[in-house]
């Protein structure tokens, strides 16, 4: 409350003292809109943590300008996102808006980015269509189709013939299913049964029993991150791990954030994803160590999305020599390539979406902790949702 | 064999629902108080158990009674400080008050414990399945059936056979006459309320493994508690017990045999039963 009052007072003072305007232009302001409360809070916390860490490591000035991040919590409610984006653009005069934990939030802010010519950096939300909603959007997270199609290709080539799918009945679940199905059946695999689980019911017992009876080679799973643990525990409880039915899926289910809480039930699950805290590069080892030191937790793929997002902004500012208008920044971002803790990545100049390696990983116990250990790489994967056009 | 497995899973799920919801049947049915915050006490029990087991290293079976005691204590304190002022207020006031409590509990737990899903580290002897005459039975679910079965019998005996049970029934039916007979009505109510909260807490601790545990627990499962109490009728314990079993088996079997309609089976069952018996399975006529 006091903070709001002070900032309001400062803003009012600024109107009278015209000198303040000149000052404001020295800084580049980023409005970071992420869920910090509610069910998606861990997304926002990871992104915010990673950005703070990046600024500690790389300083908060770039190309002679101070980079200032203004954090706003939208609790993943699109109405809030839109209002906050509007306030940030109009009142705070931010140069960039960033964050966006879920797809509806990113879509709600997209028209504002176009109208105000402000770049919108998506650091988490993962539906293909997002980057098509405004020419000012760039993404540093992932698309769901990237990992779901790759696991489909991999499964078909690695002796998995019969698959039962279990997906949560909501948009991301259906997207993951469609992407997997297309690639897996094209590779010669057969889906013997599709089970869609209601979003609000986490007792998987009857669905798992159905799978046990169908005797497939593998189960393809996509459920909201929190439920992944329940699924794996009940999968083991029913003895599916011993009956030789593999668990495969996009890596969201085995997020580093949750993996240790799942317990040994998760061991052996094979997933395709963009990032694992166990990625064996020097850069990632340093990133994980720094992150652990600062926050006493392991970074997940959301943290990497935030890290690369702020890196993209820094590099774009270097390239424009500190020019922070939307058109110059977006132009600078297109085609940019760099080494991230997740591996080599780039921004597709045509779609402004991320191009990255997708790794196949298996959950293993390393030094008493569970990790997704990478064992195969599909290089420079573009978003399959767009390459079709 | 599969049929039996489904039946067993359904019974275990139903028993769990019963322990979670029977406290609500007590407050709602016996005390005539609409306590929508019931799930918050269940969540409290779940978190107490999770903290004791995961962080302090208590054995699961030692933490389970603590979940009961902690939730009962919270219940007792809240009953004395807040709830008792609302006994004579309208049901609408009670609904608004208790739903407010739910939201406070959700944000409070979110703030203290974080929003991600919590798991309780189970001992290895509770994991996996055992072979009972060819039938594969989950050990954890078997434990739920045993614990919940014993609890139900104890509860029924307390209510129907003990002095406390008859005092409670008297206090509910006619508080004025009961006080005239020397029954300390507020004390009986406080004790009953706390006991109901304790049961919820234990249900929360038992259910964390199957239902999951996060700050949104009270909101996510409120509808299930209400269905159990509505279908069972709220004037006895037997009603909600049979309702829970019926709904548990119906839900699990529906999801197994017709997965596409799975989520709706429980609602369909509820509607059919309520059309047939509007006051619930064992409900008395709507005299009150």
From TrEMBL, chain A:
Listed transmembrane segments: none
Residue ranges occupied by any Leucine-binding protein domain in the UniProt entry: 28-364
Entry keyword Transport: yes
Classification via InterPro entries: BCAA_transport, Leu-bd, Peripla_BP_I
Alphabetic keyword roster: Amino-acid transport, Signal, Transport
Signal peptide (residue range): 1-24
Pfam families: Peripla_BP_6
Family: Belongs to the leucine-binding protein family.
Entry protein name: ABC transporter substrate-binding protein
Automatic annotation (TrEMBL), chain B:
This protein's record includes keyword Lyase: no
Subcellular location, principal: membrane
Pfam family, one: BPD_transp_2
InterPro entries attached to this UniProt entry: ABC_transp_permease, BCAA_transport_permease
Subcellular location: Cell membrane
Protein transport among keywords: no
Membrane topology: Multi-pass membrane protein
Key words, A-Z: Amino-acid transport, Cell membrane, Membrane, Transmembrane, Transmembrane helix, Transport
Protein name: Branched-chain amino acid ABC transporter permease
Source organism (scientific name): Tardiphaga alba
């Amino acid at each position: 409350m006091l903070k709001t009052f002070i900032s309001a007072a400062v803003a009012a003072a600024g109107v009278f003292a015209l000198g303040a305007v000149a000052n404001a232009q020295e800084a580049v302001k980023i409005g970071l809109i992420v869920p910090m409360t509610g069910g998606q809070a861990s997304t926002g916390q990871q992104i915010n943590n990673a950005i703070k860490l990046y600024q500690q490591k790389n300083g908060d000035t770039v190309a002679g300008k101070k980079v200032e991040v203004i954090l706003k919590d939208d609790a993943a409610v699109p109405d809030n996102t839109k209002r906050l984006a509007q306030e940030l653009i109009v009142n705070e005069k931010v140069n960039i808006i960033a964050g966006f934990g879920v797809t509806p939030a990113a879509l709600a802010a997209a028209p504002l980015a176009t109208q105000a010519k402000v770049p919108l950096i998506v650091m988490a939300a993962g539906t293909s269509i997002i980057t098509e909603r405004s020419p000012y959007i760039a993404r540093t997270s992932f698309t769901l189709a990237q990992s779901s199609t790759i696991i489909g290709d991999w499964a078909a080539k690695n002796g998995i013939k019969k698959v039962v799918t279990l997906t949560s009945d909501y948009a991301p679940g259906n997207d993951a299913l469609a992407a997997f199905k297309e690639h897996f059946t094209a590779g010669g695999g057969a889906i013997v049964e599709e089970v869609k689980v209601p979003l609000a019911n986490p007792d998987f017992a009857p669905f798992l029993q159905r799978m046990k009876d169908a005797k497939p080679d593998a189960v393809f799973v996509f459920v909201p991150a929190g439920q992944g643990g329940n699924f794996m525990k009940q999968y083991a409880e029913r003895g599916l791990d011993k009956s030789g039915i593999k668990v495969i899926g996009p890596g969201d289910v085995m997020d580093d954030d949750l993996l240790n809480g799942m317990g040994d039930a998760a061991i052996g699950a094979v997933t395709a994803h963009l990032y694992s805290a166990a990625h064996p590069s020097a850069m990632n080892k340093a990133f994980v160590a720094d992150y652990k030191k600062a926050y006493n937790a392991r970074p997940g793929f959301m943290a990497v999305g935030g890290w690369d997002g702020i890196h993209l902004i820094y590099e774009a500012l270097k390239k424009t020599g500190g020019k922070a208008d939307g058109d110059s920044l977006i132009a600078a971002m297109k085609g940019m390539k760099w080494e991230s803790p997740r591996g080599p990545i780039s921004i597709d100049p045509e779609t402004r979406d991320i191009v990255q390696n997708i790794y196949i990983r298996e959950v293993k116990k390393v030094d008493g902790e569970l990790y997704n250990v990478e064992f195969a790489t599909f290089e420079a994967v573009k978003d399959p949702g767009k390459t079709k056009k | 064999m599969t049929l039996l497995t489904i039946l067993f899973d359904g019974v275990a799920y139903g028993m769990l629902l019963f322990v979670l919801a029977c406290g609500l049947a007590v407050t709602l049915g016996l005390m005539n108080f609409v306590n929508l915050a019931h799930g918050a006490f269940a969540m409290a029990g779940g978190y107490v158990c999770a903290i004791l087991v995961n962080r302090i290293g208590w054995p699961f079976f030692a933490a389970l009674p603590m979940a009961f005691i902690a939730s009962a204590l919270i219940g007792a304190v809240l009953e004395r400080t807040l709830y008792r002022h609302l006994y004579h207020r309208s049901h609408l006031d009670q609904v608004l008050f208790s739903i407010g409590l739910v939201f406070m509990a959700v944000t409070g737990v979110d703030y203290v414990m974080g929003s991600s899903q919590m798991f309780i580290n189970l001992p290895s002897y509770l994991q996996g399945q055992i072979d009972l005459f060819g039938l594969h039975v989950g050990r954890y679910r078997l434990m739920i059936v045993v614990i919940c079965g014993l609890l139900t019998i104890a509860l029924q005996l307390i209510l129907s056979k003990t002095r406390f049970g008859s005092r409670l029934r008297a206090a509910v039916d006619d508080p004025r006459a009961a006080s005239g007979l020397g029954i300390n009505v507020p004390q009986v109510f406080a004790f009953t309320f706390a006991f109901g909260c304790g049961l919820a807490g234990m249900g929360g601790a038992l259910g964390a493994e199957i239902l999951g545990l996060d700050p949104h627990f009270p909101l996510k499962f409120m509808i299930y508690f209400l269905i159990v109490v509505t279908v069972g009728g709220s004037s006895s314990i037997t009603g909600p017990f049979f309702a829970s079993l019926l709904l548990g088996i119906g839900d699990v079997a529906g999801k197994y045999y017709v997965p596409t309609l799975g989520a709706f089976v429980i609602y369909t069952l509820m509607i059919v039963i309520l059309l047939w018996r509007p006051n619930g399975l064992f409900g008395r006529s709507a005299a009150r």
